[in-house]
Amino acid sequence: MTRPPALQPQAHVIIRSGQRVSLLELKAGSGMNRSLLFVVIGLLGIGAGVLGYWLYQTQRQPGVDISIGPRGVTIQGR
To answer: Nearest-5° angle of CA 19, CA 22, CA 7?
Structure first.
């Protein structure tokens, strides 16, 4: 028993330009997009780590504030 043409599963997707591309070809091409997504997420993670380490280092740096004002010279440790 065969199905009417409207009910048969479609094995192709029609792109806007009129080309027919099989679903397997679309799945194979998505690997590049997934790899690019992993690279972008990895770079964002590395950037967040570097920024966090930089902020940590700037907060724990010992230092001295020296200011000269109308009251004279003041020296304060951080």
So the answer is: 100
Pairwise CA distance, residues 26 & 20, whole Å = 11
- How confident is the model over 14-59, as pLDDT tens digits? 555 666 666 555 455 556 688 899 999 999 999 999 999 999 988 8
Enumerate residues 6+ apart whose C-beta is below 8 A from 59: none
Q: Are the C-beta atoms of 59 and 51 separated by less than 8 Å? A: no
Q: Report the C-alpha gap between 78 and 26 in whole angstroms.
A: 59
Q: CA angle at residue 14 from 8 to 15, to 5 degrees?
A: 160
